[in-house]
Amino acid sequence: MPTSTELIARDDAHVLHTYARSPLALVRGEGMTAYDAEGHAWLDFTSGIGVNSLGYAHPAWVKAVTAQAGALQHTSNLYYTAPCGQLAETLCARTGLDRVFFGNSGAEANEGAIKAARKYAADVYGAKRSKVLTLQNSFHGRTLATLAATGQDAFHTDFGPLPENFAYLPANDPAALTALDGETAAVVVEFVQGEGGVVPLDGDWVRALAAACAEKDILLVADEVQTGIGRTGTLFAFEQYGVLPDIVTAAKGLGGGLPIGAVLMKEKVAAHMGPGSHGSTFGGNPVACAGANTVLQTLDEAFLAEVRRKAAALRAGLAALPHVENVSGLGLMLGLALAAPYTAAAVRAACEKEGLLVLTAKARVRLLPPLILSDADIGAALTILRRVLA
């Protein structure tokens, strides 16, 4: 096998540099631990930015995807497959929503949600009802439409003109609800703004928003690309806010490591999405769906209760660390605000040298560990962070 230095050099020579990568070349993983070519190990509290929900090489997940790859790896959506149908049935049963469209990523799922919302509004109220409201500080993807939906100017620079008729509300502001007018098709929210700094929305404000949307038949769209699939301690974060959105998007942790996206919707929305209204060549891929089925089978109520317990323990330990001013987030989606002169980027780099992988979000250190973490993993991560912050 090539050395880590050789792997990095090959990547640097040929891969488009759209990511600021750490100087690590990972070649394998097991559970919570990632390894490079030389056998150096890192405790991974990133889970591939929230993707590896069951960690690395989970035995049941590996068995399911391997068996499916050896039986039927792809058919397109012109035909039915068992893994796709099973996944759709499970998602609907566990959310109370009625239909699912499968794609390949969170950005694709959010694109599909925007299309479905505008199609419903156009059919029921006419073409003028097409405005999509999102929140300031939000992030919904890197395609042109999801960039337009993202409420951060920094992501818009150099990519104009962006698709039109998007506007941004201040989160948690009751006065913002007056913007829901007769030209508004949908409001899109992240219950915890991940790229925006791991900031949860206020529950009372969310419920007021949902009530205002329902009163005016404006679709409430929940972007649960990062908050969904057990990340916040329930299968989806909307369960903790006491609302049922009209459309919910999912991706990241759903596939357990394989690309998949999903748009769940109520029947009233789905009724307007007929043949030809949307599509995806790889959407509903049987291998990805087999992995997702294993993830959902694993995330039963007992498992999710353990996620909540471990999240509380991790949060308490983080709050007690030196130079941590506050801990934000929900469940196992946590952000650390640090006292000066500590910076998130410097702490992330120092943690890597000590054997711990963490992320950043704006000025915060961001933690998205696999949902399988143990109490020992929590203790090990806290020990490294305490050493770094000391």
Overview features:
390 residues; alpha/beta; Aspartate Aminotransferase, domain 1; Aspartate Aminotransferase, domain 2; 2 domains; seven-stranded mixed β-sheet; four-stranded mixed β-sheet; 13 helices; 17 strands
Choose one word for the global shape: globular
How many helices in DSSP terms?
A: 13
Task: Profile the largest sheet.
Answer: 7 strands, mixed
Gross CATH architecture of the largest domain: 3-Layer(aba) Sandwich
Order of helices and strands: HEEEHHHEHEHEEEEHEHEEHHHEEHEEEH
CATH fold topology of the largest domain: Aspartate Aminotransferase, domain 2
Total E-strand runs:
17
Would you identify the CATH H-level superfamily of the largest domain?
Type I PLP-dependent aspartate aminotransferase-like (Major domain)
What's the CATH class of the largest domain, please? Alpha Beta
Strand content: 15-25%
Straight-line N-to-C gap: 38 Å
Q: How helix-rich are the residues, as a percent range? A: 25-40%
Rg measurement, Å: 21 Å
Which sequence of strands runs across the widest sheet?
Answer: 4-12-11-10-7-5-6
Structural class: alpha/beta
| Low-confidence residue ranges | none
- Overall mean pLDDT stands at 97
Counted up, domains total: 2
Produce a short descriptive summary.
With 390 residues, this protein is an alpha/beta fold. The protein has helices at residues 4-14, 47-50, 59-71, 82-95, 106-125, 144-149, 203-216, 238-241, 267-270, 286-298, 301-319, 344-354, 375-389, and strands spanning 26-30, 33-36, 41-44, 99-103, 131-135, 166-169, 184-189, 192-193, 199-200, 219-223, 247-250, 261-265, 324-330, 333-338, 356-357, 359-361, 364-367.
